[in-house]
Amino acid sequence: MEPTNTEAPEYFHRVVDCQWACPAHTPVPEYIRMIAEGRHADAYMVNWKSNVFPGVLGRTCDRPCEPACRRGRVEAEPVAICRLKRVAADNKGDVSARMPGPAAQKNGYRVACVGAGPASLTVARDLAPLGYEVVVYDGDHRAGGMIRSQIPRFRLPESVIDEEVGWITALGPEMRLGQQVDSLKALLDMDYDAIFVGTGAPRGRDLNVPGREEARANIHIGIDWLSSVSFGHIEKIGRRVIVLGGGNTAMDCCRTSRRLGGADVKVIVRSGFDEMKASPWEKEDAMHEGIPILNFLAPKAFTHENGRLTGVVFEAMGWQTDAGGRRKLLPTGEPDQHFECDDVLVAIGQENAFPWIERDIGLDFDEWGMPVVDPVTFQSTNPKVFFGGDAAFGPKNIIWAVAHGHEAAVSIDRWRRGQDVRLRPPPGVTLVSQKMGIHEWSYENDISNDERRKVPLLETKKALADVKAEVELGFDRPLSLAEAHRCLNCDVQTVFAAPLCIECDACMDVCPTDCITFTANGAEEDLRSRLKAPAENLEQPLYVSGALKTGRVMVKDEDVCLHCGLCAERCPTGAWDMQKFLLEMTHAGGGAQCQAR
Amino acid sequence: MTYIAKPQFHHPELPRNALGFTRRDYEGRVSTLCAGCGHDSISAAIVQAAFELDLEPHRLAKLSGIGCSSKTPDYFLGASHGFNTVHGRMPSVLTGANLANRDLIYLGVSGDGDSASIGLGQFAHAIRRGVNMAYIVENNGVYGLTKGQFSATADAGSKSKRGIVNHDNPIDMVSLALQLGASYVGRGFSGDKSQLTPLIKGAILHKGAAFIDVISPCVAFNNHPGSTKSFDYVREHNEAVNRLDVILGRTPIHADYEPGTVAEVTQHDGSVLKLRKLAADYDASDRNRAMAYLQERQSAGEIVTGLLYVDPDSSDLHDHLHTAATPLNRLGDAELTPGSGALDAINASLR
């Protein structure tokens, strides 16, 4: 293999699994260390810069960082990254003085954001301080989009939303709330220099099976119902409730039902329990509240009597292999089952809806009715119009919306400067030695053996009594310190300088996880099979040095490196050093040299 | 040394041996030696050898004297018996322990100061008596703990770190061991564990006095130009006469060897030492020729490594003394005090 190019930021960035997995590339280990030091406000600001809504995300993020966390490969479970983020938000104190204010001088350009959800608000946050006049439209009377309308209050208190939306509205964008945009053409005719569409995926999919019309009074579309609950229009539901669907919306629906009078609430899904789209922890939370999840049952018909819903008939399903060897979900032929209920919540998916976008304004749509959007620049085929969040590529989640918003803001800024939007600003990167003394590092390298901590919960009886009572209490100080200590500091990189190495084997001997091997060079596949411990995780890169004195090379499998620094401590010549790699994404207005991506 | 304990987490795919242990289970405490010390590599080779031999830790006793090398038993086989004895006196204590309990495996760990200077006499007699042990000398040619003076194994003409030339003649521990009748003699290099680990395995399995001289660069005081025990010098002048594979009785043999290039030696316990020849004219079964070869290559400035001599029909101290098969420490009162009748019989036999 060629020697690894550690000059390019991608290599070390990949080693920081959590940051690499985060769509907004939040420097996770950096803020976890700050939490461990009690610097909650600093930790909050690191988050705020990257992901805009730390308090919201610390409670609701889909946390792609956690399945990626190296701790999960070394031990059983990843670091509770998401809940540590909440710790930073809960304990930050007053950070208003650290927040940017409205731009001192306007630059004379106007940008319209359609929708006041996370994507649009991110665009507003990135552009307003640069002097843009940003105008945000939303049909709802309060800003926040799905954060406010769809996420139940028992998971996310209103005060958190108000605070974090407030940081953005304080930057001076014009908030035209309660003003639904009915025509993109009309908006284009106004004197905006660019338009950002962040309207989300606002339409809940319906279930058209017999009885749907007749029993309509007691059949509700999940996201619409959640939104009505959030805005206080609905305060009650029947005693027996069936929730159809296996995603996170279904979990929010069933848990909300339990709090609005549903005593007998069940979730019924078409596929298997393991194939459900809901995050494992959301399923766990629902079951913890006494909600059974029944699987392999497909709804066939709604039963009704005198115009009132009486129940749902289900057909038993199962995985079967068809002639072509493909696994398919098919009816098993077992007798149908009838479940009685008073209300049904349909949470079987969300769709985009663009009835307000005219099809003759140079904005192309694909065969599925989605706008054609460049995945890097977020520009549509009408160069003035940019998309982001669920509106761009269908339903995802808040952290993706934020990441889209940052990139769209970069594009809008470059576009109005007349620069090529395909060229992207590189991230800001620093790499600094952490050596303090012969065996002292400026990070805690003593690896904790502790298992993941559970977040304390409000007593179920109290939680179910109030739809606004937050269930998760968050980590207290001892718990947060213990959990923060589980972080392996993957951003503190093992950096190898081949010319200094005397091949004494000390690093190889001391490495607790057998990451390091000195051996003859070869092709990657060959090398992976010859290392001290087989490098079978192909997702994880090999770090290969140039030829050493004996002609061999140093090969390090990054997979289960604990970043404990023992290799560097045992190295007599300083060929190994522990260096902190800090990568910060460049947002709109930053970065000098741009590169094609 | 480091301030932290070595993390307990290990590689998820780390293999387990027949006893269900991983290699990590044979480790000791984190080393307090200087970073990069050759001795730590020898410890790692001992750990690897014990793991590969499926050794039950409680079946082994590690004994050492004084010095950097003699500290190392703390850093491997943490669950085995250990005795850190007086300077140069490890061979006697080991001999006594072996006499008391012949069932344990004895690993003597010493250095060039401990065995070639203060303990030279002890070393000579333990070897001469054929004590059943694996005796490892971690040989760096300097007194590391006292800041790097030449030791008795430093080559004449080699230079200290400050440029002083050594004029005394070196003691060659390997030649000495051969001359004193060791029945298993090898030399390794801490920088080549693939050679060293099988040498240690063979020595542990060997019945009788097995001796291994391991050149182990002292990174702090003897790894500079002018040293003959530095990483660079040893790598340049290393002449391996053979490569050893140790095959346990139950292990199926997979390796293919060119005909005529392999010598097989079956030891007492049924283990097979397979010697792949690297030097065509070298015969590890001929003590006299081995000694001559060593002298010859040594004068040519080369360091001969490998399994230099092995006697498959070796015997040990217990054979010579006709001691009971049951370890002495397990004999009960009945065996130890057989009564006046037995005493009379012995006396009668001497009349």
Structural description of this entry:
The complex is a heterodimer of chains A (597) and B (351). Chain A is of the alpha/beta class and 597 residues long. In chain A, 29% of the residues lie in helices and 20% in strands. Among the domains of chain A are: 99-202 and 352-424, FAD/NAD(P)-binding domain, CATH 3.50.50.60; 204-348, FAD/NAD(P)-binding domain (3-Layer(bba) Sandwich); 492-584, Alpha-Beta Plaits (2-Layer Sandwich). Chain A has a five-stranded parallel sheet with strand order 3-2-1-4-16, covered by helices on one side. Chain A has a five-stranded parallel sheet with strand order 6-14-7-8-9. Chain A is globular. The two termini of chain A are 25 Å apart. Chain B has a single domain, classed as Thiamin diphosphate (ThDP)-binding fold, Pyr/PP domains (Rossmann fold, 3-Layer(aba) Sandwich). In chain B, helix 1 (38-52) packs across helix 7 (193-205) and helix 3 (90-100) packs parallel to helix 5. Chain B is globular and about 70 Å long. The N and C termini of chain B lie far apart (65 Å). The A-B interface holds A 73-75, 439-440, 445-447, 449, 502-506, 508-510, 512-515, 533-534, 536, 549-550, 560, 562, 564, 566, 569-573 and B 1-14, 24, 30-31, 34-38, 40-41, 43-44, 190-191, 193, 217, 219-220, 223, 231-232, 235.
The CATH homologous superfamily name of chain B equals Thiamin diphosphate (ThDP)-binding fold, Pyr/PP domains
Instruction: Tell me the β content of chain A.
Output: 15-25%
Which structural class matches the secondary elements of chain A? alpha/beta
Total number of strands of chain A: 26
**CATH topology name of the domain at 99-202 and 352-424 in chain A:** FAD/NAD(P)-binding domain
CATH homologous superfamily annotation of the domain at 99-202 and 352-424 in chain A: FAD/NAD(P)-binding domain
Please work out how many helical segments of chain B DSSP would assign.
12
SSE string of chain B, helices as H and strands as E? HEHEHEHHEEEHEHEHEEEEHEHHH
